[in-house]
Amino acid sequence: MSWTEITVLVEKAKTGDREAYGELVTRFQSSVYAMALGRVRDPLEAQELAQDVFVHAMRKLPQLRDPRCFAGWLRRITARMAINRLTRRGPLFGTDPEMLDAVEARTRTAEEQFAVGEAVEQLKGALSELKPLDRQTLEAFYIRGRSLKQIAKEFAVPTGTVKRRLHVARQRLKEVLEEIDPTLAEKFAGVEDEVEAVGV
Q: Which residue ranges does the record assign to the RNA polymerase sigma-70 region domain (predicted)?
């Protein structure tokens, strides 16, 4: 699914199209879960957090001014809700089942799971071949879910510098991936659009 298609789905979902929102959940559930798991360190709690993120995002979606920012906006919601959950560590709040009744649950087949695992290993290998600064910048944004402002503060550089570093690091990563597996490199080709769309 291209970023243009995602933007169209966001526009539809903002008008109350639950089928469109369900498609967005299907597209982003793996990345939201991975980010949640990386923060709360518990699979079951990460699943609950991911569900809460999508319910919250559905309610707040009309407030999203630029549909192109959806991916970064969703990432920031996940980070914020993970921090709240870790701070609270009290009873977990449930959600209305009917809120997500239009969202179709999907589990990967054994073959898909293997393919994802293989792709992750290839990506890790490619990251390890990058210069430390390139690797640290990509990991901060994509793996640790830091915003551009947070990365700028962490590296003590202007936000514009972070954007440029992300652009350069992605290009270098793409070159390494093309040497390992050209088909894998194609999967990362749309990432540029996401970063350009993410607000600071």
A: 24-89, 126-175
Sign of CA dihedral 33, 37, 39, 44: positive
pLDDT digits (tens, 9 = 90+) for 176-194: 877 766 665 555 554 444 4
- Which two structure tokens, joined as six digits, stand for 6? 């995602």
Phi, psi for 16 (deg, rounded to 5) = 100, 10
Q: Would you identify the CATH topology of the domain 110-197?
A: Arc Repressor Mutant, subunit A (1.10.10)
**Residue at 137: amino acid letter:** T
For the chain, which residues make up each domain, given as ranges?
3-100, 110-197
Radius of gyration of the CA atoms of the chain, in A: 17
CB atoms near residue 6 (< 10 Å): 22
Whole-number Å distance between alpha carbons of 71 and 6: 9
Backbone angles phi, psi at 193, to 5 degrees: -60, -40
Closest CA to 190 of 71, 95, 104, 96: 71
- What is 3-100's CATH number? 1.10.1740.10
DSSP symbols for 154-177? HHTS-HHHHHHHHHHHHHHHHHHH
pLDDT tens digits, residue range 134-149?
888 888 876 666 778 8
Q: With 90 as the cut, is the pLDDT of residue 38 above it?
A: no
